[in-house]
Amino acid sequence: METIIKTDNIKKSYKMGKTQLEVLRGVDLSIKKGEFVAVVGASGSGKSTLLHILGALDTPDSGSVHYQDQRLDRLRWGKLNHFRNKTVGFVFQFYHLLDELTVLENAMAPAMASVGTVGWPSLKPKIQERAYGLLERFGLKDRIKHKPYELSGGERQRVAIARALMNAPPLLLADEPTGNLDSQTGHGILEAFKELNAEGQTIVMVTHDERIADQASRTIQLLDGKVKS
Ligand SMILES: Nc1ncnc2c1ncn2[C@@H]1O[C@H](COP(=O)(O)OP(=O)(O)O)[C@@H](O)[C@H]1O
Ligand SMILES: [Mg+2]
Q1: d(CA 154, CA 180)
Q2: For ligand 1, which residues put their CB under 6 angstroms from it?
Q3: CA distance linking residue 193 with residue 170, whole number of Å
Q4: Which residues sit with Cβ closer than 5 angstroms to ligand 2, an ion?
Q5: What is the dihedral of CA 181, 152, 84, 20, to 10 degrees?
Q6: 96 CA to centre of ligand 2 in angstroms
Q7: I want to staple 95 with a disulfide (CB 3.0 to 4.6 A). Which of 5, 43, 126, 156 is the partner?
Q8: Does residue 119 register a pLDDT over 90?
Q9: Ligand nearest 177 Cα, by number?
């Protein structure tokens, strides 16, 4: 199958006072379209750093990241924003929903951002319909007018998944999506990912939980700043 995203020898370090903390020391990986990959490793092994680089939220110090034929780590501002908005969807451990917006508005946010104020009035009905459909799919039909703080953790994460999928991104990136949930609720989130993957969604999910990782179709382990082979 076709490769969707690929890194070559990426390195990333952080300055800690006088010393350099080398987090990624030459990471090579390649994800194929339609895969569900779990990235595992100890706390502090660079999983989030790697995921942020794959989603163009961060850049490596050296090495390259290709999304299909596009060199991600060299994208300029306009194309970078487009990539972040259209090509990747992000799900975080602590949801990162906006508390002042309703559930429906949170789910629609990526579409609002890409359409802008001019196109909004004419496109709003379609966007609302899509957001509603996604929320319904994830069991949130009766919650659309609620604010995130009125929801349980599992519900919040399902809103975050709906939001991540709003613009139908080819690549879904999730950073410890079950990390803040009890195991049963976490299991529900994982089932949602598995279903999405069965429908063709490419997913890269960071987790430090082996049992969660086992559910993915492939596991990549980060060890000493590299992919353990
Ligand atoms: N912006 C930053 N500045 C300095 N150190 C950072 C920064 N981001 C991450 N780190 C450090 O890099 C290491 C890897 O972090 P991270 O990618 O978050 O690991 P993981 O997600 O596997 O727990 C950790 O030691 C962390 O403290
Ligand atoms: Mg992390």
Answers
A1: 9
A2: 14, 21, 23, 41, 43-49
A3: 14
A4: 48
A5: -40
A6: 14
A7: 156
A8: no
A9: 2
Q: What pLDDT is attached to residue 209? A: 87
Rg (CA), the chain: 18
**Ligand minimally distant from the alpha carbon of residue 175:** 2
pLDDT of residue 135: 97
Q: Which ligand is nearest to the CA of 49?
A: 1
Give the DSSP letter string of 93-137.
TT----TTS-HHHHHHHHHHHHHHHHHHHHHHHHHHHHHHHHHHH
Contacts of 41 (CB under 8 A, 6+ apart): 47, 208, 221, 222, 223
For residue 149, count other CB atoms closer than 10 A to its CB.
9
CA–centroid distance, 8 to ligand 2, in Å, is: 21
Q: How far away, in angstroms, is 147 Cα from ligand 1 center?
A: 31
Distance CA 52, CA 54 (A): 5
Q: How far apart are CA 139 and CA 159, in angstroms?
A: 10
What is the per-residue pLDDT across 61-109, written as a single tens digit (0 to 9) for each? 999 999 999 999 999 988 999 999 999 999 999 999 999 999 999 999 9
Q: Which domains does the chain have, with CATH numbers?
A: 3-227 (3.40.50.300)
* Count of CB atoms situated within 10 Å of the CB of 218: 12
Report if pTM > 0.90. yes
Question: Mean pLDDT across the stretch 21-33?
Answer: 97
Q: Ligand 1: which residue has its CA nearest to atom 24?
A: 44
* pLDDT at 229 (0 to 100): 80
The tokens 């339609």 sit on which residue? 34
